[in-house]
Write a structure and sequence with these properties.
The chain is an alpha/beta fold. The protein is built from 12 helices and 11 strands. It has a domain of 206 residues. Keywords: Acyltransferase, Cell inner membrane, Cell membrane, Membrane, Transferase.
């Protein structure tokens, strides 16, 4: 049954629930005061799941832990009908080669549990790191490109969506001897300020660049990234985040972050595109790399657009490799809504910039004047 949650800043009760039995849609209106309480509950729940999983990992086999994480996703798939139907609709658009409806449902069930598996990746690497490193499959081309950049003293940009074992990607590269500096949201800037530090602390403990372990997204991010690249460092970036740039993504306008395209254009750094795909076994991971070549014309606007389009197309290809392991499906709908708002605002702005012709008195036919032809373009509304 779909549930719509909206926030309002007035009203004495703070919580109002209305239902529609015919459509099966329930609307929950929550005050700003109570929405903060809800996020605190979500924060506490995620932190509890994380700590419980770390405790269970001491004596529960990895296969059972993975089954529990997938089971939570399956439960959410069946409970939340609105999100289920929305996800299936997006999967049909994004995966045209998958014609089997049962396969789409299997992918959707797995996608609901992708976030739990991301948490579990960290815990499994903490408890079974040696076994994972023995079983991991690496892409030799990716490793050679990293080594070549380091040997030449060149900076590099590591690129991947929030896909697969994204939570341990920096740690795995560090343990493989090719560390890089990831960019991350500061915990204080998220609605889950206790859960995020716990995740980040464990990830840093498992492996990171000792000189520059992380760059926090914020006011001084651009300068920090530039300084890192100038001294030959490697920054880990992504694009599947909400932003103000509208580009085509899986066939529809989507508002996403464009920072990666600007940094590539400014630094002219080689791009290392790769992600770690989870395998069949609970400790199996495979590095999958992609070629990312680009050329600059000198026109910054065109170059940024071309690079961002290249990032988007390659991102689609990577996600289609493991669609059930992408945690961005549940944000895609809101990114598309944001894109529509941005396009509507631009359309209104263009309409307001149209010059309004001054009104002139029509000459009287008695004086031999000709009737004034009306302008073909629309008048701007005041």
């Amino acid at each position: 049954m779909p549930i719509i949650i909206s926030v309002f800043s007035y009203g004495p009760y703070g919580l109002q629930i209305t239902g529609n039995d015919q459509k099966g849609v329930w609307t929950i209106k929550v005050s700003e005061k109570h929405i903060a309480r809800i996020f605190r509950m979500v924060d506490a729940t995620l932190l509890g799941i994380f700590n419980s999983a770390r405790f269970l990992a001491r004596f529960v086999p990895p296969a059972i832990l993975c089954a529990l994480a997938d089971g939570l996703g399956y439960a959410m798939y069946y409970i939340n009908g609105g999100s289920r139907n929305s996800l299936l609709s997006m999967l049909r658009e994004a995966l045209p080669d998958v014609n089997d409806e049962q396969e789409l449902k299997r992918i959707a069930k797995k996608a609901f549990g992708a976030h739990f598996r991301t948490i579990l990746d960290l815990i499994l690497l903490e408890r079974h790191g040696e076994a994972i490193l023995k079983r991991i499959i690496v892409d030799d081309k990716v490793m050679e490109k990293r080594d070549q950049c380091k040997a030449e003293g060149r900076c590099a940009i590591a690129f991947a969506p929030h896909l697969g074992a994204v939570g341990i990607e920096a740690a795995l590269f560090a343990q493989l001897g090719r560390p890089y500096t990831p960019m991350a949201m500061p915990p204080q800037g998220t609605p889950i300020p206790r859960y995020c530090p716990a995740i980040i602390e464990l990830a840093a403990k498992l492996g990171s660049d000792p000189e520059d372990p992380v760059i926090w997204a914020g006011l001084d991010t651009i300068n920090q990234v530039r300084q890192l690249l100038e001294k030959g460092g490697t920054i880990g970036m992504t694009y599947d985040m909400p932003g103000g740039t509208v580009r085509d993504f899986f066939g529809q306008p989507t508002a996403i972050a464009s920072g990666i395209a600007h940094f590539i254009c400014d630094s002219e750094a080689p791009v290392i595109a790769a992600f770690f795909k989870r395998g069949k076994g609970p400790l199996d991971y495979k590095m999958i790399g992609y070629d990312f070549d680009y050329s600059l014309t000198g026109d910054r606007s065109k170059d940024v657009t071309a690079i961002l389009d290249r990032v988007m197309r390659l991102g689609e290809e990577m996600i289609r490799e493991a669609p059930e392991q992408w945690i961005g499906w549940f944000g895609l709908k809101n990114w598309r809504k944001s894109a529509q708002k941005i396009l509507e605002q631009k359309s209104k702005a263009r309409g307001q910039n149209i010059a309004v012709p001054t009104k002139t008195r029509k000459p009287s036919p008695a004086h031999g004047g000709q009737r004034r032809r009306q302008p073909s373009h629309p008048r701007a509304k005041p």
